[in-house]
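Protocol step 4 of 6.
Sequence for DUF2999 family protein (Pseudoalteromonas luteoviolacea) entered exactly as in the expression construct, tag removed. Do not edit the line below.
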Amino acid sequence: MNPIIALLKEHNISDEQIKDVFQALTENPLMAMATVQQLAIPPEKLQQLMGLVMQNPSLIKEAVSELGLDYAKVEEAKAQLNK
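Step 5 output, structure tokens:
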């Protein structure tokens, strides 16, 4: 299991909520941060999660694939942010 998804499940985040976070990430990365903040994950765990993602960004691609979402949309959203 992807470590991002595993960490979210450790904090009793439902599969539906996890999918919502990654769906938001594929549509609007800024919105994804707001969605993550609503999950009430302790700040130290959220910081750990962010560090994990920063060290290994491919984990996002793996999680998106594991959830059956389209990673190309993440790339499109990233391109929009860079404009």
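Step 6, annotate. The chain has one domain: 3-82.
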